[in-house]
Design goal:
Keywords: Membrane, Transmembrane, Transmembrane helix. About 55% of the residues lie in helices and about 15% in strands. It is an alpha/beta fold and about 325 residues long. The chain has a domain of about 210 residues. The longest helix is centred in the last third of the chain and has 45 residues.
């Protein structure tokens, strides 16, 4: 009952986000290997895909797992035939019973993830966040990758040698594709409503239970209406920024024109202005200099006129009889 209630809550939140016109209503459920919280963390704050992948992939456990297994497997549920979000409709119709059972063991649930427009954009963000090898695969390629990781190197080579169809070897394109998948650290599995719902559910559960997968992310590509609204908002934001920059440029040009006009006006108002060789301040400085020279000369002359005693006697006259 609790699991059904939680899934219904997830559905109601996503439906409410769509109804009020939010452009970041793509949900995402994250499972981490070795993490068994009592209950998942419900996060309603807006977060972009790059930040979500950066927080999930850039940790010590993911780095260690990338050398021996898969750092992450990202399941992206495509849009429905009418362009609406596919994960909500699949969860509400009960097509993912295994995911509902694993829902309580999730590490975190994000209700507003921005930037989930396609598997290509998610792959780009995954490469930017972790710097790992990211490959977009289908369900059958995902199962082959898990099987190859579970086998030893010798068994894997035998499987590759046995990959012959009708007595012909696999072509170079297929070999390159398999090599890229074998070297991948992050797999992005794209599924649609046309795929078998039971196969999708079992694949997600298998990835969660696998020991070679460190992180599992289940998300959905945003609906067509949300993407259109997001792009319209981006265009409007860009136009507003352009208008603000243009108005700022016009204000700067008007200020410069006003300053030039003021300078021209100052140059034209020259009535009653006379140019002289000496200002009152300069004349006062010169007069003060001459006064200082005269006073100094007078003082030195007076000091030279003072004469000292030139007659010396053995006995000085009595007081009062100096003359």
């Amino acid at each position: 009952f609790f699991l059904d209630l939680t899934m219904k809550y997830l559905l109601s939140v996503a439906t409410a986000a769509l109804s009020i016109g939010l452009t970041t209503a793509a949900p995402a459920i994250v499972w981490k290997a070795g993490s068994s919280p009592a209950s998942p963390s419900h996060i309603s704050e807006q977060i972009d895909t790059l930040s979500l992948l950066d927080a999930t992939l850039n940790n010590d456990d993911s780095a260690a797992a990338s050398s021996t297994g898969l750092s992450a497997v990202i399941f992206l549920v495509g849009r429905d035939a009418d362009g609406s979000e596919g994960l909500v409709s699949m969860a509400s119709s009960g097509k993912l019973p295994g995911v509902q059972e694993k829902h309580a063991h999730a590490d975190s649930i994000h209700y507003h993830v921005d930037g989930v427009e396609s598997s290509r954009t998610v792959a780009k963000d995954a490469r930017l966040s972790g710097g790992m090898n990211v490959v977009e695969v289908a369900l059958d390629e995902f199962h082959r990758k898990l099987a190859s990781l579970a086998q030893s190197e010798q068994e894997e080579e035998s499987v590759e040698d046995a990959a012959v169809e009708g007595g012909k070897k696999v072509n170079k394109v297929e070999q390159k594709r398999r090599r890229a998948i074998s070297e991948a650290d992050v797999l992005i599995v794209s599924v649609t409503d046309k795929d078998n719902a039971a196969a999708i559910d079992s694949s997600i559960v298998k990835a969660i239970d696998s020991k070679v997968v460190q992180n599992v992310i289940l998300s959905s590509i945003r609906s067509t209406d949300e993407v259109k609204r997001s792009r319209r908002m981006a265009v409007v934001d860009k136009m507003n920024k352009s208008a603000r920059s243009a108005s700022a440029g016009r204000r700067r040009r008007l200020d410069e024109d006003n300053e030039n006009n003021n300078d021209d006006g100052n140059q034209q108002q020259e009535e009653g202005v006379y140019y002289v060789n000496m200002t009152p301040n300069i004349l006062a400085g010169i007069l003060f200099f001459f006064m200082f020279v005269m006073v100094t000369h007078l003082g030195l002359s007076c000091m030279n006129m003072i004469e000292g005693q030139d007659v010396y006697v053995k006995k000085l006259p009595a007081i009062g009889r100096e003359v």
